[in-house]
């Protein structure tokens, strides 16, 4: 490539670099929010299971997961969890999330590690720009009692009571369970 062509590409490349840097602060905030949400939920869940078994764990997930997500949805952020195999239909993905979940599933099936699987993007909303971040959630062995293949009858009965359309069972440790999904509404369209 001659120098002239290289130089003429510069203006095209610079905004891309600037945008990537711009997202890094938002990405950092998104990761912090996920960490706080996950730590909170995990500690409440393990306390509940210790005190009242898996049934109490399900109650806590049912009531506290949406509450903790709502508490984390401050400073213009909205935080939630979503999946292609849903337990709670309120967590259904929108079309952008559906697309990313399918991408994650494809990347997972191609052998990519779930550890750092994430997508970070600024998108045009109806009136303002929005920032969106999604991060894959892997199934851990502790999740299997409620999301695995071999669920105890009492646990299954309780899940059926709360979630008659539950699709979130049959997972194995290491599978892709779903994703954290965050949206931040940015003040200005050109931000
Ligand atoms: C005690 C049972 C229990 C355990 C253990 C458990 N979950 Fe869940 N999980 C639930 C319930 C109940 C819901 C529905 C919460 C709600 O109503 O929003 C849920 C919902 C979810 C969702 C939201 C998407 C959806 O399908 O509605 C994700 C993601 C998820 N669980 C991942 C995990 C992961 C990862 C683990 C292990 C680290 C785990 N869960 C362990 C019971 C459990």
From TrEMBL:
Q: Which domain of life is it from?
A: Bacteria
Q: Which InterPro entries match?
A: Tll0287-like_dom
- Keyword Signal listed? The answer is yes
Residues of the Tll0287-like domain:
26-182
Q: Which UniProt keywords apply?
A: Signal
Q: List the signal peptide residues.
A: 1-20
What is the protein's given name? Tll0287-like domain-containing protein
Can you name the source organism? Lacimicrobium alkaliphilum
């Amino acid at each position: 490539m001659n120098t002239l062509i290289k130089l003429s590409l510069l203006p095209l490349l610079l905004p891309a670099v600037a945008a990537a840097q711009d997202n890094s602060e938002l990405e950092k905030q998104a990761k912090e929010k996920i960490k706080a949400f996950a730590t909170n939920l995990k500690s409440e869940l393990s306390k509940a299971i210790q005190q009242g078994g898996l049934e109490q764990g399900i109650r806590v997930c049912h009531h506290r997961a949406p509450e903790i997500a709502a508490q984390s949805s401050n400073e213009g952020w909205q935080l939630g969890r979503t999946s292609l195999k849903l337990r709670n239909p309120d967590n259904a993905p929108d079309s952008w999330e559906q697309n990313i979940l399918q991408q994650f599933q494809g990347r997972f099936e191609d052998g990519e590690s779930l550890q750092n699987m994430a997508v970070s993007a600024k998108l045009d909303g109806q009136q303002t720009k929005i920032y969106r971040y999604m991060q894959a959630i892997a199934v851990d062995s502790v999740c299997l009692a409620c999301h695995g293949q071999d669920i105890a009858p009492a646990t299954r009965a309780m899940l059926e009571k709360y979630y008659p359309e539950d699709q979130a069972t049959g997972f194995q440790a290491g599978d892709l369970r779903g994703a954290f999904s965050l949206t931040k509404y940015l003040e200005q369209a050109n931000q």
